[in-house]
């Protein structure tokens, strides 16, 4: 089926009624993105700049490293990232995530926060930072991931994933120890952070999560997106948010979202965040 039309780009922006919280969260965002723009991006062999990568191999034995400067606009939009960043998403998606979490806090929408597909943990770290900034101690941030990359496609069950090769991308695998170390670096690893380690089909149906207020999906594939929605959407409170990171970038992800919404008669408007991210608020 064709993708459903999107609502106009969301005007939801982070609130400014708490200047100290906002200042802290602005710093967190820049640190997670390595977004000072003075930080160059390391050029690795897996990148498409093959000539640069080859040259990098020549200079490394002498203690040098070849780098390229990143485009600030592309970084804000989450179109590129430095190899030492903790998140791939840009400032627009982080702004939206902040707005959604703060909104459920202010309106007392019951439930925890979860990210399905966390990479190095940046977006989950940021959700925990929002809870910290607003002194919220009764909500948990859940991280669901295999912590070994994406699953191999199952084309018989999920034809939309048949030609996907992301499972072979070692750059997309971050261990649970690495993610915990990243949380610790921000002083945010505590008992309000919980990990669900394994493939979504195995962990999410029986995850000990009673209620959710924010459900952030970053699974790329049809299978991963559908598994997360099927297991977790029924636990999302009315007034809570679904955020989909890959809707614009990955056709398989977009199809899974559209199929799920059509199958369950969900007609809440899908709002655009940036070139790839979308979200909607559950109304019933």
Structure, described:
The structure is a single chain. The chain has helices spanning 19-33, 50-59, 72-76, 91-106, 122-133, 176-185, 200-203, 222-232, 251-264; strands at residues 41-42, 67-68, 112-116, 141-145, 193-197, 212-217, 236-244, 271-272, 278-281. It folds into two domains: 19-34 and 85-281, Rossmann fold; 37-74, no CATH class. It is α/β, with parallel strands linked by helices and 284 residues long. Helix 1 (19-33) runs antiparallel to helix 5 (122-133) and helix 8 (222-232) runs parallel beside helix 9 (251-264). The chain contains nine helices and nine strands. The longest helix has 16 residues, at 91-106.
Helix and strand arrangement:
Blueprint: H1 19-33, E1 41-42, H2 50-59, E2 67-68, H3 72-76, H4 91-106, E3 112-116, H5 122-133, E4 141-145, H6 176-185, E5 193-197, H7 200-203, E6 212-217, H8 222-232, E7 236-244, H9 251-264, E8 271-272, E9 278-281
Parallel strand pairs: 3-4, 3-6, 4-5, 6-7
Antiparallel strand pairs: 1-2, 7-9, 8-9
């Amino acid at each position: 089926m064709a993708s459903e039309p999107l609502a106009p780009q969301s005007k939801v922006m982070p609130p400014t009624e708490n200047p100290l919280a906002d200042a802290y969260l602005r710093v967190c965002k820049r640190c997670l993105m390595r977004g000072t723009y003075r930080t160059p991006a390391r050029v690795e062999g897996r990148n498409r700049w093959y000539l640069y990568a080859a040259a990098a191999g020549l200079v490394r034995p002498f203690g040098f490293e070849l780098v390229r400067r990143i485009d600030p606009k592309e970084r804000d939009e989450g179109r590129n990232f430095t190899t030492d960043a903790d998140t791939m998403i840009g400032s627009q998606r982080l702004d939206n995530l902040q707005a959604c979490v703060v909104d459920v806090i202010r309106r007392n929408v019951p439930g925890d926060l979860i990210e399905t597909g966390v990479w190095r943990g940046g977006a989950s770290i940021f959700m925990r930072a929002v809870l910290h900034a607003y002194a919220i101690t009764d909500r948990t941030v859940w991280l669901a991931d295999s912590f070994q990359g994406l699953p191999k496609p199952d084309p018989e069950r999920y034809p939309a994933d048949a030609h996907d090769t992301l499972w072979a991308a070692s750059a997309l695998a971050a261990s649970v120890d690495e993610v915990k170390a990243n949380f610790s670096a921000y002083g945010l690893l505590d008992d309000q952070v919980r990990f669900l380690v394994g493939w979504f089909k195995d962990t999410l149906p029986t995850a000990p999560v009673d209620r959710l207020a924010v459900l952030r999906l970053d699974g790329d594939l049809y299978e991963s997106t559908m598994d997360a929605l099927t297991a977790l959407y029924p636990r999302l409170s009315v007034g809570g948010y679904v955020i989909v990171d890959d809707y614009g970038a990955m056709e398989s992800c977009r199809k899974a979202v559209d199929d799920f919404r059509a199958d369950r008669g969900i007609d809440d408007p899908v709002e655009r965040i940036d070139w790839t991210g979308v979200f909607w608020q559950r109304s019933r």
